[in-house]
Amino acid sequence: MLTVLLGLTGALTYGGADFFGGLAARRSSTLLTTAGVAIVGLVGLVIASVFVPAISSADAWLYGGASGIAGAIGIGLLYGSLAIGPMSILSPATAFISAIVPVSVGLYQGEGGEASFFIALALALVAIILVGFVPEKGALRPRPLGLLMAVGSGTSIGLTIVLIDRSPADSGLIPLLANRIVSTTVLLACIAVLMAFRVARSRTPRLPGATKLLSVWHMIAIAGVLDVLANVAVIYGLRQGDLSVISVLIALYPAGTIFLANVVLKERIAIVQWCGLFLALGASALLAF
Q1: Kindly report the CA angle at 11 between 145 and 273, in degrees rounded to 5?
Q2: Torsions phi, psi of 169, nearest 5?
Q3: Which domain holds residue 18?
Q4: Is 54 exposed, middle or buried (0-12, 13-18, 19+ CB in 10 A)?
Q5: Cβ atoms within 10 A of the Cβ of 51, count?
Q6: Exposure of 148 by Cβ count < 10 A (0-12 exposed, 13-18 middle, 19+ buried)?
Q7: Average pLDDT for consecutive 10-residue bins of the chain (289 residues)?
Q8: Count of CA atoms in the C-beta half-sphere (13 A) of 42
Q9: Which among 230, 209, 233 has a CA at the least distance from the CA of 35?
């Protein structure tokens, strides 16, 4: 029961972080917003780690750092695939694959039991596709490059969860701290390269949307805090229960995003997404009991 609760908490808070991060990016800069959320998250993890008992070890830092590299690659490929489109197909495909990878690893390790467990996993995987599906008028068949990037993104994101799961149980928040240090460094390096490129071309280091960044700082802060909460819920969920259970629940993160979009922005939730939400609730109940 606690494992499912932590998994759903992680999914909803991840979705909330995506919502506020997306709003900030829409009004300023995607790259700068992503970097801002990462920095806020890093500061939050540093503060939280002071109060969480942990034993530092090479494995804790190694697996955490490796997960940061995998996560940075996954997010980069995700943004690339969504830019190619169509989002209505590539977004749920990425979420599905990001769940399949750790689920496969978990089952290989011997997780599972009664038939209801596997039925619940199957229902949750279907729910991931339905919840993440965003109806798109005139959506075309995805191009091979877009599909390839979506597969790479989902695989990398799934590998991130597997690597975090491999970290020592007594390492506290150290793996998350290592993950965020690596991913933030990668983001800042990308910004530095982009600024150098802009200086070389136009002799101005200003990035698009930089002037509007201060007007959305509160959204970035909220997204960063929610991201920290999500990561903490996930790592303790992984230590409490099965990798396969936590991974499918995490992949339901679009539920948090579409819920906030409906409440705050009055965006309509499609029928197919409602079906996915109810299916996810049913799958979660089966996994819990």
Answers
A1: 70
A2: -70, -20
A3: 2-288
A4: middle
A5: 8
A6: middle
A7: 86 87 79 83 91 92 94 81 72 85 88 80 88 69 82 91 92 93 87 75 60 78 91 91 88 84 82 87 81
A8: 17
A9: 209
Please give the Cα distance from 235 to 4 (Å, whole number). 13
* Token pair for 247: 């991974």
* Ramachandran region, residue 139 (left: φ > 0; alpha: ψ -120 to 50; beta: rest): beta
Q: Indicate the number of domains in the chain.
A: 1
Write out the two tokens for 43: 């500061």
* Cis-peptide into 86, omega within 30 deg: yes
Written as six digits, the tokens of 214 are 């201060």
Q: How many residues would you count in the chain?
A: 289
- List pLDDT tens digits, range 214-251: 778 888 899 889 989 998 999 999 998 888 888 888 88
